[in-house]
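Q: Joint fold for the lines below.
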Amino acid sequence: MANADLDLLKGTLDVLVLKALSWGPNHGFGVGQWIRDTTRDDLRIEDGALYTSLHRLEARGMLVGEWGVTDNNRKAKYYSLTREGRAELARGTDRWTTYATAVFRVLQTRREAIALLQRAG
Amino acid sequence: MLPERVRRLFRLAGREPTVAEEVDLELRFHLEMTERELVAQGLSPEAAREEALRRLGDAATTRRTLEAIDRGRRRSRRRLEVLADLRDDFAYAFRGIRRAPGFALAVIATLGLALGANATMFGIVDRLLLRPPPHIEAPDRIARILVARLFDDRPGSPSRSMSYVAFGDLRDRSTSFSGVAAVSYREMSLGSGLEARPVMVNLASGGYWRILGTAPVQGRVFGPDEDREPAGEPVAVLSHEFWQRHFGGRPDVLGQTLVLDRSPFTVIGVAPRGFTGIDITPVDAWIPFTAGMTARTGGDWENQRTSRGNQFLYTFGRLRDGVTREAAAAEVGVTYRAGHEHWGRYEREAALSLAPVVQARGPNAPVEARIAGWLLGVAVIVLLVACANVANLLLARGVQRRGEIAVRLTLGVSRLRLFRQLLVETLVLAALGGVLGLLLVLWGGGLIRALLLPGIVWDTTPVDIRVLVATLIATLVATVLAGLVPMLRAGRLDLAGALRGGIRATHAGGRLRPALLLVQTSMTTLLLVGAGLFVRSLARVEGLDMGLEVDRLLVADLHPGLFGPDPALAQPRQRAFLADLRLRHPGIEAAGLSVGGPFLANWATSVRVPGRDTLPRLPGGGPYYFAVTEGALEALGARVVRGRRFTADDGAGTPPVTIISERMARTLWPGEEALGRCFHIGGGDRPCSEVIGVVADIHRQGVQEEAFMLYFLPIAQAPDPLEPSALFIRTAGAPLELAETVRRELLALDPSQPFVRVQPYADLVSPGKRPWRLGAAMFTVFGVLALLTAAVGLYGVLAFLVSQQSREFGIRTALGARPGRILAGVLRSGLLMAGAGVLSGLAVALLLAPRLGPLLFETSPTSPGILLGAGIVVLAIAAGASLIPARRAVRVNPVEVMRAE
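A: Joint structure:
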């Protein structure tokens, strides 16, 4: 899915970012890394889009960004979920699951329907 | 590095990085981490950098997008923070009030009384001086036309009155005005007999309503067609108040009939609420001028209509656009003088001027308005004193709070924030004070208005929108004035010293507090001088010998024809009436009839003194005369200095006699005996009237007047047949008790009479004393208010100083200093501070003296007794306020003080 539709990704990316941070505070690089690792590189997300998503979520109060220090003593901006962010993650997960199930069902149904039509024909 | 949240929690200083810096830092970290990862996967550093950048996408756009998002976020965060800070500040202020309710109460009460005084006076001055009368269209284009006639070759003071003929000239010829109107105030009788009531009627010319641009709220108004000559249409426009009071606001009032002085008038309209024409005194109804004059004077109107001698109309006009007041005054002046070319110089060379519609801003401003202006100034001074006091209280508390403030400054609270917090705190206190002030005005303002300034229509409640806005502004100014000094002081706090604590370190406001105290004591002294001057003026007015005994005197106005149409036949009836009256009512000590009378009306006729070609002229004019019956002089309480009073025998058939005033005796026969001399009264060859008595000088129309000549003569011997216009009655008890009895007796003579006014004579005299009563009352109230405030302030400062020095006192006591010396020291510093204030206050009083002088009555504005007295009072209060802290200083226990350190 390297050329995945960007529109589809946009809403999805927010959910992915929220999910990535549900394990604990992390910086932008860490979030990108986690998503890549978890999707085994199936979802190639442009880093620019990732940071836009992070900042937008911060502005909406889903995340709080704070400057902190990494393990090897480097200054980095750490993001953590707020309570609203957690709620949004739950909602986003529901939405995405419903959507994905629906799409999956349609795709399944279509194959069976064609088979039925062929049989009838 | 502390997280941002922690830093913000403690409000630590330090510059927040800009949005661009933050974004840059974040992206740089990302690129470096990505590069490092790629290098670990085996790429060369150059390839890794290229790949990292590629993965980022369009770096510039990303950067811009992120910065835009962050900027928006910061903006909304700041807004929230400011709001939260403000909320904190207010919460802090209210917590402070709860923690020190005594302090807060002192500040709120001080400011509340001062702001209330200001709101009251502003409301009064607004009505008298600032606001034009309501319901007048473009009031700044309305001009009153005043005539300054020539007296003794000098222009006299501008007068409002001119004759009907002169008004007609201006109305018909003036080109500077789009219209000229005239109005005359008349008290008329509504109905007759026992039910009759007096109503104040405005006789208004036809152009009155159009020129003022006033529209009725009911029906219509009248115009030139209804004010036609000789007799106009008998129609009436009611004032809104009279409509409410007399007709209960009934909508079917139009078409009803009002009987005014026995003539019926049809109600055609109702004026808007609060409308009283160009003046602010009450009006019950308006009627066309010609109709009113016909109803009132009957046939005599024919003479008045063509006479330039009867000057009783107030004229005003609406200036045409582009015409200046000067040009208009010059134009009407030419017309006026042309109309009087056959008259004496005093009319022929009269100067006309224009005055604004607000009477108090013109040349003939009522004394009350001028005093009210002063009183507003006084109220502002009271507010200044209060602000100085509050500033002092805040300073004292600032000192107590130094530790707390220093800790917060150290923790990084910005001084600006601290500043704002103090400002909010002061604002909350001042605002509560303002609310208290307005409540006081709401409860007491109406009473003060009614007591001190009766006879003025108050068209708004004591707290109207303008008073509200003025009070709001005053509150803000008070906040700044009272809060500024303590705020600056807090900003300059010496941190190390304050943190070290200890009483010695607290010299904050060392010079400021005495300076504030100086302002307070000097202003208080000034107010007390003012109060003293007005109280003495009032005492002089009350104690004034007007040649009459005002107490226990009733006066009744008599209608023409009361004793029959023929004056000659009426005289026996008059005698019988007076004799009957005294017989039936033992409470009447003396009674007499009079033509005119002091504070009523003056008469004058030509007088010729044998042996003199001309009469000496006195500034007050004259000689005037009152024609009286036997008993009138006794009733009035006129003091016969020499000779005798009139008796029943001084009649038409006996030799003519007269009683003259002391001044007239002195003027006509200086240094000689006037008794037995004679002068001719009236023209023709009438016999010489012999002077049979001399009475002490009597005032004729006011409290303040210039010297004039006055004589009395028996009605029966008057040059022309005259009808008595007044009945004077001296009562044994309170005059009001007999008023209704006398009214009934007079109505018995003719039950169909219009309203018969019977009133205590004091009611005629007392309006003339009102200005000084107003000045004395308000100056005293404000002066005492300032005095109390200053006393509290002085006490506060000294108590504070003593607490500062208690260690020193302790040491001195321990070293054997006598308590008396310490006591004297504290007293001395208190008196020194107050003394400096007294001196500067007296200096200001002397500076203002020339301007205040004209408002006083027989009192010098630089009267040493009053200046000295005010100074002594302030010093005495200062000594009293110093005594308590001084005694505390003496009682200081050295051991305890040392231990406290």
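Q: Anything notable?
A: The interface with chain B takes residues 27-29, 32-33, 46-49, 51-52, 55-56, 58-59, 64, 66-69, 74-77 of chain A (CB under 8 Å). The radius of gyration of chain A is 18 Å.
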